[in-house]
Amino acid sequence: MLAEPERYAAQSLAHVVDAVRAARDETAPLRIVGSGTWLEAGHGVRAARSLDLSGLTGIVEYVPGDLTLTAHAGTTLAEIAEATSAHGQWLPLDPFGDPRGTLGATLATASAGPLGGSVGLPRDVTVGISFVTGDGDVVNGGGRVVKNVAGFDLVRLTIGAWGTLGVITQATVRLRARPEVDETVAFTLPVERDALSTLLSTVRAASVEPLAAELLSPRCAEQVGLGQQPAMLVRLAGNPVSVLHQRTVLERLADCKPTPGDAWSRLRRSDPPQASVVRISRRPSELARLWSAAMTTPGINAHATLSRGVVRLRLTSLDPNLLASFDASDARIIERVPADWRNALGASRKASDPISRRMRDAFDPARILNRGILGEDSR
Amino acid sequence: MTPSLASQLSAIVGSRHVLERAAETFVYTADGLPGYRKQPTLVVLPGTRDEVIAIVRLLASVGVPWVPRGAGTGLSGGALAEGVVLLGLHRLKQIISIDPENRTATVEPGVVNALLSRATASHGLHYAPDPSSQAACTIGGNIAENAGGPHCLKYGVTMNHVLALTVVLPDGSVTTLGSADGEVDGYDLVGTFVGSEGCFGVALDATVRLTRNPEAIRTLLADFNSIDEAAQAVSAIVATGIVPAALEMMDRATIVAVEASIYAAGYPVDAAAVLLIELDGLTSGIEPDVFRIDAICRTHGARTVRIARDDAERARLWQGRKKAFGAMGRIAPHLIVQDAVVPRTKLPEVMAAIGRIAAAHRVTVCNVFHAGDGNLHPNIAYNAGDPDESERVHEAMRLIMKLCVDAGGSVTGEHGIGLDKLEYMPLIFSDETLSAMCRLRDVFDPHRMSNPGKVVPMRSCREWAGLPATRHAAVHA
User: Domain count of chain A?
Assistant: First the structure.
């Protein structure tokens, strides 16, 4: 049993710089922690110390007319939602898990939820980022304006890097105004693969522009309050005429039932506490195949984003038959699994290519930031 | 005796595609931004990806830097080569594949932007980023610059539309970044490569996202008695939550220049400013948004709001906007264009301040820009042969840039830094940040072979001084 790691609670940028420099000077790797909801993600961080950013919190600047917001990394998505809703605006990031998750962790992990299929990918909503490199340098990429190509893109570099290129301390994100109407419908999905495939293609080609469209397995549908049938949950937004039209179009394709909008927040929080999470993806046209493969496992808890072709499996045990039902070339992304599942899943090591290794040499030469989190070999 | 570089390159691409004489290379000494002339040692024009790879490997082996170039329509001096090899990629113009169901296309870098949309039109799809130079500019150049365009307001810039790239790095190695075939783990190398202004290598092919053609398009032209009213209208439109496909502003100086040119679009020449607003999307539901935007414009003082009746009128309204820089060519021989971005709420005060700077320096600033995302293009047509006028023009531009930065903005929204804006980089980035950019460059190009001297001022790179100077000397040998 490992001893509780030494913990730094950063309250300011200066604290982060001090902690990183000390860690570098003493070659004592740091685990970077936001609200701590991902601590047991099975990513195998090897660190003697943790750098807790949950106290580095607060909105730095919010000008509603600019539809941008700058906040410290430890600010929770819930706090941002509260501040922006007062102005009829929102940040369209809806990662799965606890809404007390922080902005910094959401960006560092590039976590997206159902809105990722339309407007909610972290890489697309982030316009500026501040981070502290493994050398303790304070770097500011992008800015506070919504369009910016000045210099090399340090924003995209950091998003999804899991903290390994720098500790994200602050970010500027673009907001959207709340749509006039925002409604949700659900309908039952066919079980048979060809029928499913036809339906998915028809919905994709239809005169609708869903804000989100998510397939739910019976287990997942039940958690969301839709009964025990495989279901599609669709979120339609816009002006009343547009939403009415889109709903009418969907009603012609399937037996749509009006559904309370909180189905989305229930879905977001529905990851079973101890579940391991793996995402399987291919180009969107293959979603029916991926989905049918997942559904061959009785009782599977899964959902999938229509426009992205991503199936998200929430597993409590590792069933070899389940994995065998996918193609070996289907992309497998591990969100959180026990260490001993990794090889069985056949997931590639992240960031093990030469460019990524050089990237780490450039931004964290001492390898002190979240060492091991990308499944990389130790040096 | 070792064969000359030109003959070694000729062995790869054929002597017809290696240009050495000044008369042949002249066209490559400038880009879309008049005011810079740089003479490449020679120009090499590969026709296949294997030729590109062979050229990059040869240049790496002899230590000669090079500058990649698409159609040369850039507005930052970024595709200019001084005393090094210019690598023109416009012959690689194959659309390799189109996947209508997944809405993607894989193309070579020399494919012209507008031709990709034309090729995908029969599938009801288009390539959304639409720089004003789209009739000539290439997808490869767009990727290097992270190009924008009027419709990026709703659809996003190039970065948002590139899924995967095959690139040759400056050391000659070939690698794939990203994927169009499922999610990719690890660093966002596509996002990092796009917008690297040719400093990280050359894309051999790109898989880009295609966008469904909208069912309906409505184009509105609203004219105002003051720039301030037009700017206030922009802020009000942005605040509604309706995201127009495009929201462009032109001031009187621009309107007059356009209307006097062959690109005349029927803009009212007595207006202080016009807004060109485009809404698109599903047919059902577009009219209420049109009605609302129309009302907002009128509330903010619009004299008239005209809605294009058909595609022909719509095309005419857009032609005036997209050819506005061309129209400036009638006014004076030289043009200086900026690309600053300001927070959208600052538009009214920034526009007023630009007017004051212009008056104080006795120059005519034309404003034609992407108002919806705060991306300004103040430009001045002038005669570079007149030293007094040149001095006033450059001083006014310097002050305008400072004004935009002080308002919380950026020095470039879509044109890139290139050579032109190098001096402005320290205005918005600290030494530590500029140094981080240098390190990022070195990840892809440690020997600074690809587009040397662009984007980050050399003095910002702590380690830069240590580079051997002999590298550049090799070109002249």
Answer: 2
